[in-house]
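Question: does this match?
>
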Amino acid sequence: MQACASVDNENRSHEKGTTLNRNELKEAVADRAGLDVGQADRALSAVLDAITGALASGDKVTLAGFGTFETRERAARTGRNPQTGESMEIAASTAAAFKPAAALKKAVSER
């Protein structure tokens, strides 16, 4: 599956298992899509902005074969201040979450 294929590691200076940064990602997008790096950067920004906007509106974003970005509600709970050990209430919140598709899970497990 093309969407789950690995980034070209020959041009990477880090070891396997390290973090791919935005510059490396936009270069990989440019290479695979036949774009210049500026176009790839704008495309990447547009995709991330669209996902962020959808999540901020409470919508899900599903990319078939890749996964689903969604929000999840976290209930209010009691926690501890790590500096003092004192109990404190942590307010309810909404968090972004990602659920990988079966194809992505399979591609990752087979590497």
